[in-house]
Amino acid sequence: MCNVFSKIKKAAVPVAIATAASLGLSAPAMADWSPKKPVELIIMAGAGGGADQIARLLQGLIEKKDLSPRPIIPINKPGGSGAEALRYIQDKAGDDHTILVTLNSFYTTPVIQKGIGVDVSNFTPIGRMAIDTFVLWVNSGREDITDLDSYVAAVKAAGTNWKVGGTGTGQEDSILTAMMEKEFGYDVTYIPFPGGGTVAKNLVGNHVDSTVNNPAEQNEFYRAGETKPIVQFTAERLPAYPDVPTANELGVNMEYYMQRSINGPPGMSKEAQDWYINLFKTLFDSEEWQKFCTDDGLACHEWLAGDDLGAYHTQQIALHKELIETVGATAITGE
Hints:
alpha/beta, D-Maltodextrin-Binding Protein, domain 2, 12 helices
């Protein structure tokens, strides 16, 4: 069952993109187009979560490095597990001044919520900034939980009284929660919050019993000794957590990853798309971004842009449809 999850990462496509950066051109050399007004950077998740942190880091680097003639303005639209943001971008067709930071709900939300009328394959692919990862977290006060076996035992003992915090129907953590329920044969109560940052705070406050947050969302509390990682859902141990085993190491074939990419509305002009590709490739290559990736458990070694990113999206849409069929949409939504 879990093989489909490992495909999420492995189905990347060869990189053969000729961006301005790869050709050695600078931003001024691409003078055909540049923003004429502030650019909306839409975040399909709530404040404090991984997508929000990434968007605001990128916005800060753009300002610091003076990479845009007009401001880039982050705007959170987390409603409906990203449906609000996706519909907003769909309705901005042809707009060169609106872009979107995505999660895997970019793929799953339109499948689960068909009524929103969104086809993300029509969006304009710009650049994939990272592949994000997932870690199982509990409060540091749970001295009875020291490894995956003791975690599973605790969950089974609690039954549906065990509360798993997440960010909503069809979001990545709800998928991974459903995957774990099926793998280990237990049922939990899934509690959605507006964003990953809120989820992390609720774990610290013992309002939920566990989460499968991205590292960036938990690291502040982990470094403060308030939460602890139990297992990583990655092929190999992340440099940020050298002492935390992967599920694969423990004999559980379970991997899951999340793409972090930038996309524009349907019908964005080619000139604008090229300008944004150049902008985000510059950020991708920056020392600041690469350090963030290493410190916060993201994989940022492979850049995808334009048509290559579009091909990756096509593969991921198909894989997530398969994933939903494997786990079951009902398990994901909790209905």
